[in-house]
């Protein structure tokens, strides 16, 4: 059974940091590119960051470049999103996504991130 379980969300003040984790099981993690998406109320889901299957390449949305860092540990079947200098505009539900070269993909259930004073 495929599972992607996000954790690490919560309430943080502007300028603060959070580290999201996504633990994967039920598929060959090291063969899947991993991505973090987010969706704010009333808005479409948007791609935040992505990392290749072996971690050699990453990409980021312009809005988070220089503040967020995506990484993965294939030995632990886990992908991370380190979020620094958080802004109220970063408030959203953050979703973990796994995508195979065949285009098969899986989604996590999401974790809420709220940036507010």
Description:
This protein has no helices and 11 strands. The protein has 117 residues and is mainly β. It is globular.
- Please report which band the strand proportion falls in: under 5%, 5-15%, 15-25%, 25-35%, 35-45% or over 45%: over 45%
Overall outline: globular
**Main sheet?**
7 strands, mixed
Number of strands: 11
What structural class should be given to the helix and strand makeup? mainly beta
Helix content range: under 10%
Could you give the distance between the termini?
40 Å
Low-confidence residue ranges: none
How much is the average pLDDT? 97
In terms of topology, how is this protein built?
Layout lengths: L2 E5 L2 E3 L5 E8 L7 E7 L6 E6 L6 E3 L7 E6 L4 E6 L8 E8 L5 E3 L3 E5 L2
Parallel strand pairs: 2-11
Antiparallel strand pairs: 1-3, 3-8, 4-5, 4-9, 5-6, 7-8, 9-10, 9-11
Task: Please tag this protein with its features.
7-stranded mixed beta sheet, 4-stranded antiparallel beta sheet, globular, 11 strands, mainly beta, 51% strand, 117 residues, single chain
TL;DR?
The protein has no helices and eleven strands. 0% of the residues lie in helices and 51% in strands.
């Amino acid at each position: 059974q495929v599972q992607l379980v996000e954790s690490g969300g919560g309430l943080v003040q502007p300028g603060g940091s959070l580290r999201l984790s996504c633990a994967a099981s039920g598929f060959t993690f090291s063969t899947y590119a991993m991505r973090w998406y987010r969706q704010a109320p009333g808005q479409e889901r948007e791609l935040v960051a992505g990392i290749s299957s072996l971690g050699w390449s990453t990409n980021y949305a312009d809005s988070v470049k220089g503040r967020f860092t995506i990484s993965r540990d294939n030995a632990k079947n886990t992908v991370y999103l380190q979020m620094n200098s958080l802004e109220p505009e970063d408030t959203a539900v953050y979703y973990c996504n796994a995508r195979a070269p065949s285009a098969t993909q899986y989604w996590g259930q999401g974790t809420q991130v709220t940036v507010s004073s």
